[in-house]
């Protein structure tokens, strides 16, 4: 379980979190919503260990993430950022092999197929559309062997068909894993998740 215990966090003079508590269990999917500036992406960065709370604690399976190395954290959680910058002209297949073998799932062919990337494997990632790059980023995150998956706006540049495929992947993934998804599109997809957390 990921446990967020009474955390506080500020950017400059802007208080984003003050005594905020939440949790994400295995076999559970949570939709995180809220207006711009509410701290949605910040929360994923905090859980991912990229930022540190000013107070409070974040545990993964009972262990404070502050005590875990980057490798240990990577074995526990996988992150798909809202925008991943692809600046080098690697092929999609090469990008999906960036993960060390010990961190990759045994077979990601289903993820590749469901995200419509099979026909793009030999294309350079820098030549793809924004929506296609977003799916490559998502496939990279879902190809990582982890217990928890943190997905930041995975639907933002997707058409209805791709969004439906992503929702199906999330539904299957959460049978054994924990999934936290950020999305502005709450009304259309909230029923697909076990819980919704709305940030003011």
Plain-language structure description:
There is one protein chain. This protein is α/β, with parallel strands linked by helices. It contains seven helices and nine strands; from the N terminus they run E-E-E-H-E-E-H-E-H-H-H-E-H-E-H-E. It has helices at residues 40-47, 70-74, 92-95, 109-114, 130-142, 160-173, 186-189; strands at 2-11, 14-24, 28-33, 55-60, 63-64, 77-80, 148-152, 178-182, 195-198. Strands 6-7-8-3-9 form a five-stranded parallel sheet, sandwiched between helices. Strands 2-1-4-5 form a four-stranded antiparallel sheet, with no helix packed on it. A hairpin with a 2-residue loop joins strand 4 (55-60) and strand 5 (63-64). The protein is globular and about 45 Å long. The relative contact order is 0.22. The model has no long low-confidence stretch (mean pLDDT 91).
What keyword list fits this structure?
200 residues; alpha/beta; Rossmann fold; globular
Brief synopsis:
Helix content is about 25%, strand content about 25%. It is built from seven helices and nine strands; from the N terminus they run βββαββαβαααβαβαβ.
């Amino acid at each position: 379980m990921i446990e967020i215990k009474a955390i506080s966090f500020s950017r400059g003079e802007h208080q984003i979190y003050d005594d905020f508590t939440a949790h994400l269990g295995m076999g559970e999917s949570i939709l995180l919503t809220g207006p711009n500036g509410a701290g949605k992406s910040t929360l994923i960065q905090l859980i991912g260990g990229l930022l540190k709370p000013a107070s409070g604690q974040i545990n993964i399976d009972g262990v404070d993430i502050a005590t875990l190395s980057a490798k240990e954290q990577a074995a526990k959680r996988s992150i798909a950022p809202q925008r991943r910058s692809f600046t080098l002209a690697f092929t999609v297949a090469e990008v999906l092999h960036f993960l060390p073998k010990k961190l990759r799932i045994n077979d990601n062919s289903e993820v590749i197929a469901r995200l419509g990337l099979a026909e793009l494997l030999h294309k350079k990632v820098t030549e793809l559309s924004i929506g296609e790059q977003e799916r490559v980023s998502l496939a990279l995150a879902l190809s990582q062997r982890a217990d928890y998956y943190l997905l930041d706006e995975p639907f933002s540049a997707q058409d209805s068909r791709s969004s439906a495929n992503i929702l199906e992947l999330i539904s299957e993934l959460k049978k054994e894993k924990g999934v936290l998804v950020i999305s502005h599109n709450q009304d259309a997809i909230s029923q697909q998740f076990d819980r919704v957390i709305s940030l003011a």
